[in-house]
Structure formats: structure tokens, C-alpha cells
């Protein structure tokens, strides 16, 4: 008997299941499946694509699965999936469009071991080894998931160089996804600096030379007119979150072109580990429009288009085709997170698509929310309300003006003062000095609201002396700009100066934790974008927090998904800030922390998700009805667990 792709069927004596048996989407659960697609109608060669069982088949106890459960004729229910019912885009395709005929077959043996979504390595049980043609393909020992984690951590710790640890983690993600996530979830404090900042920055810089297996989708200028087709090449069909970059402002490292892919990949692994979004629902994308980085253009191992960046209409058209294709392929409720775009595109993209798509700019909005949370909790240490403080930023780009606006919005809500008034409590410095009214005409549009009445001030330290801020925020991407004089000046003005050095990676941090505590004589309340080890100063150990949007975006995204939100609203950002600030306990304050440790991040994310979802319902932006009674419990119940599934 021949299957649809021409291979013969072999019946397994234990399971009674044929190896390549074609089945409907209502497969029995917990069986690894391979979805094959035949593109005969556009004369492409046939191929088999391994996909996660999660995307095609109902998972027991997973609320997200409700949506694919249509084949029994039941009315499809709204679910975590965001109500995207037309899984393969067949219903929404017009008659003259090509569609993809899918069928599902069972993965086994050698290919099962090489399918990261289903591979368990040595943890395959004896029964599974019999049932799935694994005998002889594995050594005799059977180990459990916990022992695999222990061994993997042991292996990773053998590497002294962070980039080698990064590579070991990426290899694991490509080999055994559930082990990767269990490892990351259980060792989050230790592994976050590896899969995320600072190491991911170095990985992006060297992405070409360390490149092995491609991760995510690469869409380049050459793909103009074919973006929808490219999205269909991705094996998973039920995508809930896309993180997309064009690589022009990777952390504080600048234009890394196509090699920025490390960022969407890293961010999405946090969506899963920290926020519980299923890996199969996450899609990292890099839009390659070229690079203006000479080093990349001259690097023989560079993986992207070897040309200068497209801009203007050419850029806008490609982005528009992308945004349209995403909505067409994944529906209204797929979350598109813009990440590490340069500010000359980031603000415009957010403005253009915020009313038509579910979009979120992590650098503008996520950063704002995490910093506001830190400030709300810092008030417990320094006293007063937000309105009693003065804020000075070094850096007036996405992060700086995004944070500034959310602070002003929160003060406006608290005091009923108009936004134009509350903005006056916030001052920003860019590469040309203090932003003041006399500079208005030459300022980029996102800086204009911050052009207050003041004489020009060139030097940052002079701006501190004249503005007398209580809070200093670094968002410049320029390392070592909070000099000894800067920190000492802040400390002479404030008993407890709040100093946030947000720039990433560590090399770009405005100052180190050690410098902040030493130069402030141990009085600074300090947090940084990339982590620093605890510092001992004058016999006291100071633990600095990590002011990083990683606290916000995973829970924020989960909140949008569980409520079926259709748009992002600023009030959701405020709700996320409050939820995060509420998670800081007296024990944390006693250590000088203004953020909770990452160890409890899943619990924190569930609280953020619940507050964000609650706000979506309140604002009438939620489409998943009725509203669950206990949103925290519901958020927790929706979270992906990396536990191995049992295969019959
Ligand atoms: N911790 C976190 O969660 C996050 C951290 N970040 C970090 O923040 C940094 C900035 O990101 P983003 O706002 O998107 O970048 P942008 O490029 O949008 O903005 C950078 C700003 O800094 C100014 N600037 C640069 N160098 C100097 C300098 N030497 N002195 C004074 N001002 C300077 C620029 O001035 P001009 O406008 O005149 O060019 C610009 O206003 C990056 O390092 C990024 O990694 C970003 C997001 C989140
Ligand atoms: C953290 C982050 O998003 C950035 O540095 O760009
Ligand atoms: Mg970013």
C-alpha cells in the first residue's frame, strides 16, 4: 500500500499504527506526528515537514487546543489561540490563490530522534522504544528528564566562554525542545544571560561564523511579492506571537543586518520559558533589507544581503507586504512584536499599524512598562509619589522617550493634571545636549514633546546640576557615560539617587553596578539592563536588579493572547507595570532590589498576564468571551509545560 507521498506503509505490531499512515487532523493525542504538504498544484517538488503535534492536534488539558477541534462538527470556541479557525488558510484563500493540501502521518524511528519537538533522547521509555522503531537507535539506558537537566547543566558549566554556552543552548534547542525549556525554566537566573543579553549580543555579532541550523524565517528584499508564500513555508500554522526585527539597532550594538536574527530567537525563547507561550506558536522573523555596517558587508561569513539598506518607499512597501501577509496567514489576533528597529522606522511602524494590527514595540512600550514598574517600587525606598520626582534621561530614542511618555501618563492619571503639564517633570538629553525649546525645529518628531523651556545645556553633568533630577535613566546605548562625576553629582543632590543604566549589552551599560555603588558611597538604588553580580561595598552586599523588558513582554503577550485582545492600549502597559511592582516584597526591598528576582518569573508573568487581560476586557478589546473568573489561575493554566508527553 502506498501513502500519498509515495512511501509504503509499515504496520507496527505494538501500536497498530502505520508508519506513514495518512490521517485526518483528529489523530489520537500524544502521538508524534509529521505533517506533510504536497504542493502539486504549483509544480513544486513534494516534501515532508516535521511539525509539532501542538499545532495540528489537540493536546490534552491544553486550552489552546480547542480551536483545532473542528472536525467533529462542534462549534469552534474562542480560545488561547486567538480564534484563528482557518488553520491552513484554505477557507480564506480566494479561488485563484494556491492552497496547500496537508496530511498528517506518524513520526517514528530515526526521524523521531531528529525531530526537536518530539525527541526525548535517552528519556524514551522501553515501551516507546518498541512502539516507535527506536530499538538500536539509542543505547540501552533509560534516564529521566531531571537527570537529563542535571547532565546538561553540568555540560554547559564546563564551558568557560559565554558564547560556547550560547551555542550549547542553541544546539539543545535544535535537538530536544522540551529539555531546552525545562533547563531554561529551572535555571533561569543562570541561563538568561546566555540565551539573552549580554551573550546574545555577541552571538549576533558573530552569527555568520557560528551559524549552523537556520532558526526562524528570513525574509529579504528579494522576496518582494512572495512574502505570503514564505510564511507558508514555516511548518507551524497556528502562530500566536511573531517577534520581528530588521536588525538595524541590535541592543546597543547598532546595525547588524540579517545577523540580528539572534534577537527574535532569544526573545521568543523567553516568551515560552518566562511567559508560557507554546514554542510551536512562536515565530522569529528577520526582515533583511541590507546593512550599512561595513564590517558585515566585508565579512566573508556574513549571512545576509550584501548591499546597503533599503529605505523610503522600498522599505515601506516591503514592511507593508509583510504586515498584510501576516494578518492574512495568521489572522487578526497574532501578536507582532517589533524588536530592535532603528528609531527612524520604529515609531512610524508602531503608529502606522497600531490601529490595524495587534502590534507591540518592545523597545518603546515594553521598556517603558518595566521602568515604570521599577520606579513605582523604588518609591517605597525613597518616598513620595511619582509626581514629586524629577527625571533626567541620557538618550532620547525609543527607550528614552517611550519611558518618558509612560511616566508622564501615569503621573497624569494619578494627579489629573494634563499630559502637557506632567511631561515637564521629565527631561531628556541626546547626543546634542539637553532637549530644549530652541532646538524644536531640528528635533525628530518623537523628541518634540520634551522640548521644554530652558537655555541650551551641552554637557550631561551640567544638565544634572541644573535640572537636579531625583532619577537618572541611561538609554543611550553608549557605555561608560555615567562617569564618576555624574554619579557623584547625583549623590550630592539626593540621599538615595535612583540610577538606571538600561543600555545593553554589558559593554554598553552607562556604568557598572560596582561603579554605581562605589561612587555613590553605597547609597544608589541601581538597576541595569544587563545583569551584574552582587557588589560588596563597605561590608554590605548590594544586589542590583535587572531593569529589562524581559520582565514585561512574556506576561504582556500572554495577557493579550488569553483575552483574545485585538489591539494594544497604553492602559495595558500601565496595568503591567503595576502588576510587576506588586511582586516586589519587603524582603527584596531590604536587599535594595526594585525588581523581584527572575526565579519566580512564571508566577510574575501570570500576574502581569491577568492584569493585562483584565484591562483588555475592561476596555472592550478582548474577544475571548466570557471572561474567565480567575484570570491569574486561567493564565497559569494556559502556560506551556516542558514536561515530556507519553507516546502510545
Ligand atoms: N533594558 C532594557 O530593557 C532596554 C534597553 N535598551 C537599550 O537602550 C539603548 C538605546 O536604545 P534605543 O532607545 O532604542 O536607541 P535609539 O537609537 O532610539 O536612541 C539612542 C539615544 O541615545 C542618544 N545617544 C547616543 N549616544 C549618546 C551619547 N554619547 N550621549 C548622549 N546621548 C547619546 C541618541 O542621540 P541622538 O538622538 O542625538 O542620536 C538617541 O537619542 C540600547 O543600548 C538598548 O540596548 C533598549 C530597550 C530595552
Ligand atoms: C532589552 C532590549 O530589548 C534591548 O536592549 O533592545
Ligand atoms: Mg530590544
Automatic annotation (TrEMBL):
GO terms for cellular component: chloroplast. One of its GO terms (biological process) is malate metabolic process. It comes from the Eukaryota. Keywords: Chloroplast, Metal-binding, NAD, NADP, Oxidoreductase, Plastid. The keyword ATP-binding does not apply. Residues 1-24 have a biased composition (Polar residues). Gene3D superfamilies: Malic enzyme, N-terminal domain (3.40.50.10380), NAD(P)-binding Rossmann-like Domain (3.40.50.720). Divalent metal cations. Prefers magnesium or manganese. Residues 364-617 form the Malic enzyme NAD-binding domain. The active site is at 196 (proton donor), 267 (proton acceptor). InterPro entries: Aminoacid_DH-like_N_sf (IPR046346), Malic_enzyme_CS (IPR015884), Malic_N_dom (IPR012301), Malic_N_dom_sf (IPR037062), Malic_NAD-bd (IPR012302), Malic_OxRdtase (IPR001891), NAD(P)-bd_dom_sf (IPR036291). Residues 1-25 are annotated as: Disordered. Its cofactor is Mg(2+); Mn(2+). The chloroplastic ME isoform decarboxylates malate shuttled from neighboring mesophyll cells. The CO(2) released is then refixed by ribulose-bisphosphate carboxylase. This pathway eliminates the photorespiratory loss of CO(2) that occurs in most plants. Belongs to the malic enzymes family. This is Malic enzyme. The gene is MAOC.
Amino acid at each position: 500500500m502506498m501513502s500519498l507521498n509515495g512511501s509504503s506503509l509499515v504496520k507496527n505490531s505494538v501500536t497498530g499504527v502505520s508508519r506513514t499512515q495518512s490521517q485526518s487532523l483528529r489523530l489520537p493525542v500524544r502521538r508524534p506526528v509529521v505533517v506533510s504538504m504536497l504542493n502539486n498544484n504549483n509544480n513544486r517538488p513534494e516534501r515532508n515537514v516535521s511539525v509539532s503535534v501542538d499545532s495540528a492536534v489537540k493536546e490534552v488539558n491544553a486550552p489552546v487546543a480547542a480551536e483545532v477541534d473542528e472536525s467533529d462538527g462542534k462549534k469552534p470556541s474562542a480560545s488561547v489561540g486567538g480564534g484563528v479557525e482557518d488553520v491552513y488558510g484554505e477557507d480564506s484563500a480566494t479561488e485563484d490563490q494556491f492552497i496547500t493540501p496537508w496530511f498528517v502521518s506518524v513520526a517514528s524511528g530515526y526521524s523521531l530522534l531528529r525531530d526537536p519537538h518530539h525527541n526525548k533522547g535517552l528519556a524514551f521509555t522501553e515501551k516507546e522504544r518498541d512502539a516507535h522503531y527506536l530499538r538500536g537507535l539509542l543505547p540501552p539506558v533509560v534516564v529521566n528528564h531531571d537527570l537529563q537537566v542535571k547532565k546538561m547543566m553540568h555540560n554547559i558549566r564546563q564551558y568557560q566562554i559565554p558564547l560556547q554556552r550560547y551555542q550549547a543552548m542553541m544546539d539543545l534547542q535544535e535537538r530536544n525542545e522540551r529539555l531546552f525549556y525545562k533547563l531554561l525554566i529551572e535555571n533561569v537566573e543562570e541561563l538568561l544571560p546566555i540565551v539573552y543579553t549580554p551573550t546574545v549580543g555577541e552571538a549576533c555579532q558573530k552569527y555568520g561564523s557560528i551559524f549552523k541550523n537556520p532558526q526562524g524565517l528570513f525574509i529579504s528584499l528579494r522576496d518582494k511579492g512572495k512574502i505570503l508564500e514564505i510564511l507558508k513555508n514555516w511548518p507551524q500554522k497556528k502562530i500566536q506571537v511573531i517577534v520581528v526585527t530588521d536588525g538595524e539597532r541590535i541592543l546597543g550594538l547598532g546595525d547588524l543586518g540579517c545577523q540580528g536574527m539572534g534577537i527574535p530567537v532569544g526573545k521568543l525563547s523567553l516568551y515560552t520559558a518566562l511567559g508560557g507561550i507554546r514554542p510551536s506558536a512562536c515565530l522569529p522573523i528577520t526582515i533583511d533589507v541590507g546593512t550599512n555596517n561595513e564590517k558585515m558587508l566585508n565579512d566573508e561569513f556574513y549571512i545576509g544581503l550584501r548591499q546597503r539598506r533599503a529605505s523610503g518607499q522600498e522599505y515601506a512597501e516591503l514592511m507593508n507586504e509583510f504586515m498584510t501577509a501576516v494578518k492574512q496567514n495568521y489572522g487578526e489576533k497574532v501578536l507582532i512584536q517589533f524588536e530592535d528597529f532603528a528609531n527612524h522606522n520604529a515609531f512610524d511602524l508602531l503608529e502606522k499599524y497600531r490601529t490595524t494590527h495587534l502590534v507591540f514595540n518592545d523597545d518603546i512600550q515594553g521598556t517603558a512598562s518595566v521602568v515604570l514598574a521599577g520606579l513605582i517600587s523604588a518609591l517605597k525606598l525613597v518616598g513620595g509619589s511619582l509626581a514629586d520626582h524629577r527625571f533626567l534621561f541620557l538618550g532620547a530614542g525609543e527607550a528614552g522617550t517611550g519611558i518618558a511618555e509612560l511616566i508622564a501618563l501615569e503621573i497624569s492619571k494619578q494627579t489629573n493634571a494634563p499630559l502637557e503639564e506632567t511631561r515637564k517633570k521629565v527631561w531628556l538629553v541626546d547626543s546634542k545636549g539637553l532637549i530644549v525649546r530652541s532646538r524644536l525645529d531640528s528635533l525628530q518628531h518623537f523628541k518634540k514633546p520634551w522640548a521644554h523651556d530652558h537655555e541650551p545645556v551641552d554637557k550631561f553633568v551640567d544638565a544634572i546640576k541644573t535640572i537636579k533630577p531625583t532619577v537618572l535613566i541611561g538609554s543611550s546605548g553608549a557605555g561608560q557615560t555615567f562617569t564618576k562625576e555624574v554619579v557623584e553629582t547625583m549623590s550630592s543632590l539626593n540621599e538615595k539617587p535612583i540610577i538606571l543604566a538600561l543600555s545593553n549589552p554589558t559593554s554598553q551599560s552607562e556604568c557598572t553596578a560596582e561603579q554605581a555603588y562605589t561612587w555613590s558611597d553605597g547609597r544608589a538604588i541601581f538597576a541595569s539592563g544587563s545583569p551584574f553580580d552582587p557588589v560588596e561595598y563597605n561590608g554590605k552586599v548590594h544586589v542590583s536588579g535587572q531593569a529589562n523588558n524581559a520582565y514585561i513582554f512574556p506576561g504582556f503577550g500572554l495577557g493579550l493572547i488569553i483575552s483574545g485582545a485585538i489591539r494594544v492600549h497604553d492602559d495595558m502597559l500601565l496595568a503591567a507595570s503595576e502588576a510587576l511592582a506588586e511582586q516586589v516584597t519587603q524582603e527584596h526591598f531590604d536587599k535594595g532590589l526594585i525588581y523581584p528576582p527572575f526565579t519566580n518569573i512564571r508566577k510574575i508573568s501570570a500576574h502581569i498576564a491577568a492584569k493585562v487581560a483584565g484591562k483588555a476586557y475592561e476596555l472592550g478589546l478582548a474577544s475571548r468571551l466570557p471572561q474567565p473568573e480567575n484570570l491569574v489561575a486561567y493564565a497559569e493554566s494556559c502556560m506551556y509545560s516542558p514536561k515530556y508527553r507519553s507516546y502510545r
